[in-house]
From TrEMBL:
Chain segments annotated as coiled-coil in the UniProt record: none
Name of the protein: Chorismate mutase
Annotated GO MF terms: chorismate mutase activity
Gene3D superfamilies found in the cross-reference section: Chorismate mutase
Source species: Streptomyces roseolilacinus
Region (Disordered) residue spans: 1-36
InterPro entries per the UniProt record, alphabetical: Chorismate_II_sf, CM_dom_sf, CM_II_prokaryot
Amino acid sequence: MTTTDTTALPTSARTDAEGTGPRTPGAGKTAAERTGARTDDAALLITDARERIDALDDRIIGLIQERAAVSAVIQEARIGSGGRRVNLAREMEVLGRYRDALGRPGTALAMTMLELCRGRV
Ligand SMILES: O=C(O)C(=O)C[C@]1(C(=O)O)C=C[C@@H](O)C=C1
C-alpha cells in the first residue's frame, strides 16, 4: 500500500487511507465532501452513523430475502394444492400491519415488499 502523509492537513481535508481506493465511492474527497458536514466533529459522527446504517441495511436486505423465501414456500404449497399464488385477504392484513406501525409510507413499503416476495400481480 502506498501511503501519503496527510497529517499536516486538517482532518477535514484528508481522505481516509482505508476504503477510498479508486473504485470506492468518496475516493479523493474530503470528509466534508463525503458527508456534507462543515466540521470535523460532524463529519466523524456522520461517518460513524453511516456505518451503522449500512450494517442495518444489510440486515434489512437479509430479512427481506429470508421473508421472500418463506413466502415462496407458502405460495408453492398453495399453488401445488390447486390454489392461486396470491391471497388478497392476507395481503390486506400485511398492508394493515405496516400502515399501523409506519403510517402511509408503511403501506407503500409493504406493497414493494409484497412485490419482491410474490412478483407483480
Ligand atoms: O401469506 C400468504 O398466504 C402468502 O402467500 C405470503 C404473501 C406474503 O409475502 O406476505 C405472499 C403472497 C400472498 O398474496 C399473500 C401474502
